[in-house]
Amino acid sequence: MSDSNQNPSPDSNQPADPNQPWDPSQPSGPAQSYGSAPSYGSDQPPAPAQPYDPGQSYGSTQSYGSAQSYGSAPEAQGGYQPAYPPAPQSGYVVAQPYGALPEHPQGTTILVLGIVGLFVTICAPIAWYMGSKAQKEIAASGQHYSNEQNINIGKIIGMVLSILAIVGIVIAIIFIVIAVVASVASS
How many domains, in total, are found in the chain? Predict the structure, then answer.
């Protein structure tokens, strides 16, 4: 049973029609793609590679007489955009494009010190101090960082644990004073 809707497979010596889509069921694949060398045994020379022009539609030919004149602005070529944004003016804070914020170099350290302060009490006031210092730097510079929450959380943990440590030390001193007074009164 033959199917009359299918095209016969092209001869390997004949170039593929560029207007027809590539058929993956063909054993030889596309005869030749743009910019590639012909297969071995082909009688045809390779096609010269053409530079990509975003303004040129598929299948149209490039007109070489319409080149821009020397000294004209690149915007005249239809939608050209510069590769880099213009340089920032002095005194302005430049926000990171596309939401990519940098990390503050001490953000993770402050958070880790705050958490370690649960077990090693001396780390809690260090986290509190470093967190306050980092927040002052951020407020002064106007720059936002992706880990500002880590700085805030580490500072708060350090603050709470420092206050609890101070309260614990005061309660311990009170118990020691009471114990000393009770032992002196009983003797």
Answer: 1
Nearest to 129 by CA among 166, 165, 154: 154
Domain that holds residue 147: 105-186
pTM of the model: 0.47
Q: What is the largest CA-CA distance in the chain?
A: 119
Give every CB contact of residue 165 below 8 A, 6+ residues apart in sequence.
121, 124, 125
Distance, CA of 163 to CA of 122 (rounded, Å) = 12
- Classify residue 71: in a domain, yes or no: no
Q: For CA atoms 62, 65, 71, 75, give the dihedral sign.
A: negative
Top-ranked range on mean pLDDT: pick from 6-15, 16-25, 116-125: 116-125
Which two structure tokens, joined as six digits, stand for 170? 């005061």
